Amino acid sequence: MAANPPVETGERPSGWLDQRTRLGPVIRASLHVRIPMSARTYYFGGIALFLFGIQVVTGTLLALYYKPTPEAAYESVQFITSDVSFGWLIRSMHHWAANLMVLFVGLHLVRVFMQAAYKYPRELTWVLGCLLLLVTLGFGFTGYLLPWDQRAYWATVVGTEIAGGVPIVGETLLLLLRGGPDVTGDTMSRFFGIHVLVLPLMLAGLLAAHLLLVHQLGLANPRRPEPRVATPESRQERLRPFFPHYLIDELVAWYVILAILVVLASLFPVGLEGPANPLETPAHTKPEWYYLGVFELLKLVPIKVVGIMIPVVGIGLLVVWPFLDRSPEVLIRRRKVVVGGATLVIIALLALTVLGFVS
Amino acid sequence: MDSEVGTGPLTEGGGPIAEGGGARTRRSFLRWLGGLTIVSTAAMILTPIVGFLIPTSGSRAAGGGKILVGTTAEIPAGAGKVVAMGSKPAIVVSTDQGVNAFSAICTHLGCVVNWNDMIGAIHCPCHDGRFNPTTGAVMSGPPPAPLAPITVSVEGDQIFLTEA
């Protein structure tokens, strides 16, 4: 194939690499964008992205020693933790980064919701973000089983049983998740494959699309709605450069998170319970904190299917929310019903989680 | 390629028709054919993938036969014990009315129940569900159904469970 001749842009490739890739304009177009002065992201999304990077690195390292069979998994995790140099640190960082990633994806979602940044023209960015949240939760769920200890095993039994309780598709879903009627080595093979191949590819694709839309549409202004037709007022919006101003702030936030991560991993290294025993559910079995609300809900709601369908419908509503909330208002004081409702949902979720901890 | 493709509305025979005539044009036919190709290709790819993902049947242990699970000395009156029945857990409970056995899988979320001396009942550690030791019926908590009974027989001092 004949190479494309250099485009006459008046801009000459500046360096050795640029001459051979001609990516200079693409990189410049990605970096040199301007964002509204009033935009407040609190760096939640960027931190979630950084934590995903941590997970890719630590997860790849763990996979070099981990053996995904019921006979060998537990011992291989013990070996990583006790014998491999820095094994405890890598494993603990993977654990804590997973928890923080769920937290920051959640905080990012709340921030975007409260600032009404899901409204026109960013509806699809929101939908992609919700899918990213689900993939993140999927990472937590599938990764949890892999140490094959009591906590891992029973959290998976309960989690898949909840999926099995979904009307109509539940039974098939349970079989597909477990690879059979029970949680066995077949389940572990599936979860490992999903955790290290399917979900990372899905997340990378969704993330690329999400970031592309963020780049194309820019950050939302939390003070006024995006005009459908540019107005003189919107053209006078005060802006600041993304690079280097915003990016440096973001990098500082990443360093802070890295420090927190190392401290958490060092002070609270992740442990390991006894090996999985399918004949004995340990007392006070509980899932990871981000599933604790649903777990507690299932205790309180007398009809099981209702308890299962509440979060399912809730997530469905969350995904399509920008298409239901058609009002252009972005200010919190003018969205009292929506913001009040969302606050109540958050309080209820927190209350259920706390109740799950103490019960 | 046919240079006429997409140049204007044509009848099914290929001849031109008036704009907005409603007859199928060559372009709409090709579009339909393209759609059919995409759908059939997707079905061709997805069918083996979905088939591959559905677990093969026969994973459950074959039923039938009596299994020795313990002795009356191990499970005296007022006590209970979780035992393995093939790959499944069962709970054997000894009461004043005799020895009973149930599936030990809680009907709520699949946790394994155990015998609780303090409350004198079968107890689920996940959501505090409680079951009657004689009938397996739900006494309290969120379980939606009683524990499934298992046929139990005592021969001498030996306790046997019979797989369905």
- The succession of helices and strands of chain A, N to C, reads HHEHHHHHHHHEHHHH
Strand order of the largest sheet of chain A: 1-2
> Structural class of the secondary elements of chain A?
mainly alpha
In round numbers, the mean pLDDT of chain A is 92
Apparent shape of chain B: elongated
Please tell me what the overall shape of chain A is. globular
Order of helices and strands of chain B: HEEEEEEEEEE
**Over the alpha carbons, how many angstroms does the gyration radius of chain A reach?**
23 Å
- Count the DSSP helices of chain B: 1
Q: Biggest interface: chains and residue counts?
A: A-B, 32 and 26 residues
Task: Give the N-terminus to C-terminus distance of chain A in angstroms.
Answer: 68 Å
The poorly predicted ranges of chain B are 1-15
* SS strand fraction of chain B: 25-35%
Break the fold down into its secondary structure elements and pairings.
The complex is a heterodimer of chains A (359) and B (164).
Chain A: H1 16-21, H2 24-31, E1 34-36, H3 44-63, H4 73-82, H5 87-114, H6 123-145, H7 150-164, H8 170-178, H9 185-217, H10 232-235, E2 239-241, H11 242-267, H12 289-300, H13 304-324, H14 336-358
Antiparallel strand pairs in A: 1-2
Helix pairs in contact in A: 3-5, 3-11, 4-5, 5-6, 5-11, 6-7, 6-9, 6-13, 7-8, 12-13, 12-14
Chain B: H1 26-53, E1 66-71, E2 79-85, E3 88-95, E4 98-103, E5 114-116, E6 121-123, E7 130-131, E8 138-140, E9 149-155, E10 158-162
Antiparallel strand pairs in B: 1-10, 2-3, 3-4, 4-9, 5-6, 6-7, 7-8, 9-10
